[in-house]
Amino acid sequence: MPEFLDLHGRTSKALRAAADDGMRRHGLHLGQNHLLAALWERDGRTPGEIAAELRVTTPTVVKMATRMAASGLLTRRRDERDNRLVRLWLTEEGWALREPVETERRDLEEAVLADLTGAEREHLMTALEKIHRAATALLKDSRSAD
Amino acid sequence: MPEFLDLHGRTSKALRAAADDGMRRHGLHLGQNHLLAALWERDGRTPGEIAAELRVTTPTVVKMATRMAASGLLTRRRDERDNRLVRLWLTEEGWALREPVETERRDLEEAVLADLTGAEREHLMTALEKIHRAATALLKDSRSAD
DNA sequence: CAGAAGTCGTTTGCCGTCTAATGAATGCGA
DNA sequence: TCGCATTCATTAGACGGCAAACGACTTCTG
Question: A82 to chain B nearest CA, in Å?
């Protein structure tokens, strides 16, 4: 059980749980805030566009959007010019969550990094960038195309 | 969209995908290697014990064990003295995967950290430890007991 | 010794995520 | 213009996770 992978995994899970906890306070499920963030930035996007931005597959966005539509955060509407497309539009409720959720998220980031100095944070970001690049490269290797 | 949480999330996903890729090569699904690792270290453990070690809930282990039993990696057997307990025992197949999977995992760790100097790795681990502690503390705060 | 309380594994149901298959609409080439 | 390839969203099914409800067995207590 390699040290880094192990520690990273545990950290990941803890962060995930903390984030989930925070979102739940606003009636959201983990992951939904990302979808909302995409729409806050630009409303009326299509599932495919959102999936690409969130680095997630389209079915994931579709399912999540279905649940979120059911809970009144957004609505689905077909694009008038191109009927293949579906556009997601935020409801009042969806917009209303913007401030509280963004604050929650900023607070979480700050709370979690509280014990790190500025220099430590810089090094951490650099290291994660490198790891991200390396891991992504590994994936491209094993898959025929990407 | 805070920088750190965002980068960490992306890194996490990339690592997860890379690990999944590697495990798939040995016919395993992501996560099953952890359960196997627990049994390699000590065979005949109970679902509850394994769940605690993997920091996962018992139902997660139970489900995973069911699938792994179906694919012949382990067998279920009730404890003779205490009939509430169930013990999981590795099959030949389960033991056979040990070397290749542990190697795979070590290789992944090394590949992913390849661009980091020794000092960078140390700083990274320290930083992750701090973050892990902070995130865990946040969880304990919000939950009545733990 | 018998009932109450505690300890386990299992089942159920939901969420996020992925891959693969399906279906509808557009657009391009002959 | 007509058909076929392309582009989208959706559905189906699998997996890892979690929380809550359930059921079986053990242990503690009166």
Answer: 31
